Amino acid sequence: MGDISLFLILLFFAVLFISQALLLPVAGQKAKHGELTKRLKQAQKKLDEESLSLLHEYYLKEMTPFERRIIKIPIFANLKKMVELSGLSVTLGKLLSWTLFSSLLVGLISFALGQLWYINIGLFFGVWILVYTYIQKCITKRLQKFEEQLPDTLDIIKRVLQAGQTINQAFKEVGEEMPDPIGIEFKKTFNLLNFGYDLRLAILQMVDRTPTISMLAFSSAVILQKETGGNLTENLDKVSRVLRARFKLSRKIKTLSAEARLSSWILVLSPFALYLLIMVINPEHAELLITDPRGISAISMGIMSLAVGSLWIRKIINIKV
């Protein structure tokens, strides 16, 4: 019974990790390699202490007292940021309490069924891994949708500026006309500007909530115009054309890599399909794989090899644009 349970758990995690590794988000990825962080730090250095204090105060304002205490720990601060990026309507405290309760419940049920201790521990941490994977999926989906909406948003801002209105009014128009997630983000930024926040401060706050390469390009254009002057409408028009060209290239890469991704799925899932086929043709022969200790060892090594191969395949086909 313990060997079969271990096999099922290993199979579950194998399919979970492999499916995540082979997903290819062509857009909506967070800006990496420190580029965004470097730009933000350079822009924040130009803000005075009072503005930085307002930025930090605004971030803490909507938190509960419990959240304000636990975000002092780096791992919980990162988790709080992930929840914000995902757009989930749940507080960090509720997420932690629900996940802890679910993991304890699953672990206790496994223990009551007489499973081995390492299986109970694996199921306990498995719940946390599932929650983390779901949040990451929500982040990718939300940021991808945000980037897809940004070129149309820039067109709205250009029209408002060409009509002689201010950038504040342009942000208001975007908040009213565009759907979520970009509409709510620009609405928040407009509210900050209405409260008297500096434009750079409000833009930095929005970039922190949506850290994508496209948002970095937009914020750089606005902040550059704020600091050095120039024609913001013309700059936004150039940014819009670049973003549309980037999406066009991303979709072309996705199309060209479709065959490779399909081949990857076939190669990865074929061992599981072959095992199911053997179970139908010769059940006694297939049962040896999950009852014999050598079979469990072979399965474990095979699953680890598949996971490494899936990550390697993703590394090859995940072309950055």
Helix fraction?
Answer: over 70%
Shape: flat
SSE sequence, one letter per element:
HHHHHHHHHHHHHHH
- The count of helical stretches stands at 15
What's the CATH architecture of the domain at 144-242? Up-down Bundle
Q: What average pLDDT do the residues reach?
A: 77
The radius of gyration over CA amounts to 25 Å
List segments where confidence is low: pLDDT < 50 over at least 5 consecutive residues.
Answer: 24-28
Which structural class best describes the helix and strand composition? mainly alpha
- The total strand number stands at 0
- Report how far apart the termini are: 49 Å
Report the sheet-strand fraction: under 5%
Report the sheet with the most strands, covering strand number, pairing sense and barrel closure: none
In short:
It contains 15 helices and no strands. By secondary structure, it is mainly alpha-helical.
Show the helix and strand layout.
Elements: H1 2-22, H2 35-45, H3 49-61, H4 65-70, H5 74-86, H6 92-112, H7 117-162, H8 167-177, H9 182-194, H10 199-209, H11 213-228, H12 232-256, H13 258-281, H14 283-291, H15 293-317
Helix pairs in contact: 1-7, 1-13, 1-15, 5-7, 6-7, 7-8, 7-12, 8-9, 9-10, 10-11, 11-12, 13-14, 13-15, 14-15
